[in-house]
Amino acid sequence: AVTAAKNAKGNANAEICDFLNQLADYERNVSRNIHKYNAYRKAARSIAAHSLPLRSGKDAQRLDGVGKKIGEKIEEFLTTGGLKKLDKINANPEAAAIQLIASVVGFGPAAAQNYVQKGITTLEALKQEDGLSNAQKIGLKHFADFNERIPRAEVEALRQAVFAELREVDDRLEGQVCGSFRRGAATSGDIDILLTHPDFKSTGDGEALGKTKKKLDPPFDKLLDRVISHLKKVGLVTDVLSLGESKFMGVARLPETQFSEAGLAPPRRFRRIDMRLWPVDQYPLALLYFTGSDETNKTMRRKAIDLGFRLSEYSLRPMSEDDKPGRPLPVSSEKDVFDALDMTYLEPAQR
Ligand code: DCP
Ligand code: MG
Ligand code: MN
């Protein structure tokens, strides 16, 4: 019998996945090599899905997405318990500084690299810089809080508070918390809310509304604005990172009374919240996409391509011989998409 130690996700090869993900982060943020980043991530996902503990690099190479080079790293890790490449990365203060800054909300790898080149290597020094964007200032201000996972009970309390307030703005607004919360996760990195309205319709072309028309039609051009203003007024939203007609990224926190009434344990942290306003006819496709996981999305999009379709958060469309998308298929539930792709329906918790 296999008695390998498994992590919370049941991954027998957690340590291997962990070092592959560290290498992936390094490639994305420091080397800026997105291909290598994707390769490491893909190998890590493939190994995470493998239930038996890997015994050798050769063993690992049998898995999808694990080639010779990654196989050799796994061999080194299994035989020596470490990885020279990772030791070198971890001993490089410049690389560490880039990774640190790139992990702050509002900063990407390019900005991180620029600051480190200028000799800015700590968050304290970064805070003193002129010319930070509003989003970057907020990212720095809440750096510690944003690095904390959000317990499910707190997402639930925020969900109830937000949806109660939405009724005050427009009692026909509807929506759901998607992301890891909808998949049943015990903790979430942020709160992903998808909203819709029965009168808010797409043009039917299967594209993003913003792509075909510069502006949403009234009153929906102002609806998300009104939602966010109201949530700010009642103290649920504390900061705005960005706000467009259909996409909000910001910060939320439960007011003190609601926090204690929900029986949540202090400290009362600031949390990242994303909100999208979606046309009702495209809602099931957005629900599917924003529920994720990103891995399930990739699998489904790939499956769609294999079957001659194109799947997005806006539509499921057949592709013509010359690779042009046809008319969107009618989709009234997530299950319709699984059916069209000839896949067994997966409950959110299985995704
Ligand atoms: N998504 C995706 N590909 C990305 C980013 C996001 O398919 N590159 C989709 C799937 C995600 C959803 O959007 O589940 C929400 O994105 P999050 O980054 O918030 O991811 P999760 O909610 O899944 O996880 P977390 O708990 O870290 O927020
Ligand atoms: Mg999320
Ligand atoms: Mn999110």
Automatic annotation (TrEMBL):
The keyword DNA repair applies. Its EC number is 2.7.7.7. PROSITE patterns: DNA_POLYMERASE_X (PS00522). It catalyses: DNA(n) + a 2'-deoxyribonucleoside 5'-triphosphate = DNA(n+1) + diphosphate. GO terms for molecular function: DNA binding; DNA-directed DNA polymerase activity; metal ion binding. GO terms for biological process: base-excision repair; double-strand break repair via nonhomologous end joining. Its cofactor is Mg(2+). The active site is at K73 (nucleophile). Keywords: Cytoplasm, DNA damage, DNA repair, DNA-binding, DNA-directed DNA polymerase, Magnesium, Metal-binding, Nucleotidyltransferase, Nucleus, Transferase. Residues 11-351 form the DNA-directed DNA polymerase X domain. DNA polymerase that functions in several pathways of DNA repair. Involved in base excision repair (BER) responsible for repair of lesions that give rise to abasic (AP) sites in DNA. Also contributes to DNA double-strand break repair by non-homologous end joining and homologous recombination. Has both template-dependent and template-independent (terminal transferase) DNA polymerase activities. Has also a 5'-deoxyribose-5-phosphate lyase (dRP lyase) activity. Belongs to the DNA polymerase type-X family. This is DNA polymerase.
